[in-house]
Design brief:
By secondary structure, the chain is an alpha/beta fold. It has a domain of 180 residues: Vaccinia Virus protein VP39 (Rossmann fold), CATH 3.40.50.150. 36% of the residues lie in helices and 21% in strands. The chain is built from 9 helices and 9 strands. It has a 7-stranded mixed sheet with strand order 5-4-3-6-7-9-8, sandwiched between helices. Helix 1 packs across helix 9, helix 5 packs parallel to helix 7 and helix 8 packs antiparallel against helix 9. The longest helix is centred in the C-terminal third of the chain and has 20 residues. The radius of gyration is 19 Å and the shape is globular. The two termini are 26 Å apart.
Length: 292
């Protein structure tokens, strides 16, 4: 088993460690209200404000691409004509839009950060599909649903906020018997991971498991693994880090040497450097599972 930080290593309040995006974790689990105040023309922003400013500007809040979403969907053996779908950690909803194009069902797009959901409301109205997409601001570890409410539970790049096995064990109760859970998550592809990579992950509370270990976690969670596949590098570079770099460069010009902003931007740039250097060892994998 490859594990570089115990999955139970959380703070004493039982919440999840606040860390930066790291492999698609696109926002903090325990969102705090942004502190904005104005004195004449002076606006002070927190590091969290800058963090969200970067991610609001991105087409995706984590690695991925539409072809991967469609491939994962195609690996579901049977989909009812009008499925009820829950998209957890939806961000601004790029994959939500893809799912809406793949089915005539209804989608509940759930995220903790309201401005992301407002973006979904905007584009769903523009594309005249708002009657099929409901947005909901809620925490993924306290879902306000009845048991067995959904045919499909979908989550791209967000389950690591809770931990892979913990997330599956909690979310499965909201999936109907015979329904499906489809998630993408950071996964170890080659081992042992270099010491530099392990040391980079540790301060952020990142746990990285191999595909084999995740298959065992799926089984322990009471789910049946139907299929899995790895995301291509373009999901990280072309669709995530390259758009992010453009936003970073723009913010650097606007904010200069602002220390709050610079700290966030430097950390995000370093994350991209680490991926390019060690992409042989880790990446995202999609897991298609069934509740039996």
């Amino acid at each position: 088993m490859q594990e570089y930080l115990a999955e139970g290593d959380r703070n004493e309040a039982g919440k999840y460690p606040e860390r930066l995006s790291l492999a698609g974790r696109h926002h903090r689990q325990n969102h705090k209200t942004s502190i904005l105040f104005t004195l004449t023309v002076l606006v002070t922003m927190t590091s969290e404000d800058y963090f969200h400013q970067v991610f609001r500007s991105l087409p995706r809040q984590g690695p991925g691409y539409s072809e991967a979403t469609r491939k994962a969907w195609s690996l579901i053996p049977f989909v009812p004509p009008h499925p009820a779908i829950l998209d957890i950690g939806c961000g601004t909803g790029t994959q939500t839009r893809d799912l809406a194009a793949l089915t005539g069902g209804t989608i509940t797009a759930l995220d903790i950060y309201e401005p992301f959901l407002e973006r979904i409301t905007e584009w769903s109205k523009q594309e005249r599909i708002s009657h099929r997409i409901r947005t909901l601001q809620a925490s993924m570890d306290d879902l306000p649903f009845d048991q067995k409410e959904f045919d499909i539970i979908w989550s791209e790049g967000a389950i690591d906020i809770m931990g892979f096995e913990m997330g599956l064990s909690l979310w499965k109760q909201y999936c109907r018997h015979g329904g499906y859970l489809v998630v993408s998550d950071m996964t170890l592809f080659d081992s042992p991971a270099p010491e530099e990579l392990i040391n980079f992950w540790k301060p952020y509370g990142v746990t990285v498991f191999s595909e084999e270990e995740k298959a065992k976690q799926i089984s322990r969670a009471g789910l049946h693994l139907l299929n899995m596949f790895r995301l291509e590098e373009k999901g990280w570079l072309e669709h995530y880090y390259e758009p992010m770099q453009k936003v970073i460069e723009k913010l650097r010009k606007e904010q200069g040497e602002n220390p709050e902003c610079a700290g966030i931007l430097n950390a995000l740039e370093q994350e991209a450097v680490i991926y390019r250097k060690f992409k042989k060892f880790y990446g995202y994998a999609f897991f298609i599972m069934q509740k039996q």
